[in-house]
Design goal:
Radius of gyration: 17 Å
Shape: elongated
Low-confidence stretches: none
Distance between the termini: 21 Å
């Protein structure tokens, strides 16, 4: 399989795809780069959704106003999902072209997870 096709798998199948690509393309820096970017998108959305979920339960304690505020904040989560979807399409297109990509906002936030990237062996990508 070509390295471009393997890199696209990371975006198409999100977490399992990124882990499979990281395992298959361990020696290929291009594949590891795109696997890391796919994991960044997944972790960004997971943290955002979990944060909203915790905030939902805290806001529900406020009588009458808490639930409507929590539901309206879900709009931010929905916008982030659309943003991540657009970044995923960008990642797929860049992988098909053979280019590397750094996602705006997401990659900057995920750089703080340096220990995670070292554990997964993706710190120098």
């Amino acid at each position: 399989m070509s390295e471009r096709a393997v890199a696209v798998i990371a975006y198409l199948f999100s977490l399992p795809g990124a882990l499979v690509v990281a395992a298959l393309g361990r020696k290929n820096r291009f594949c590891l780069h795109h696997a890391r970017r796919s994991l960044e998108l997944f972790l960004f959305l997971a943290f955002l959704f979990c944060g909203w979920f915790v905030l939902l339960y805290l806001l529900i304690l406020i009588p009458y106003a808490g639930f409507p505020i929590a539901v309206s904040l879900f709009g931010i989560v929905a916008a982030a999902f659309l943003f991540a979807w657009a970044l995923c399409i960008l990642g797929i297109l860049k992988a098909l072209r053979g280019d590397k990509v750094i996602f705006p906002l997401v990659s900057g936030l995920m750089e703080r997870a340096g220990r995670l990237w070292k554990i997964l062996g993706m710190d120098e990508v």
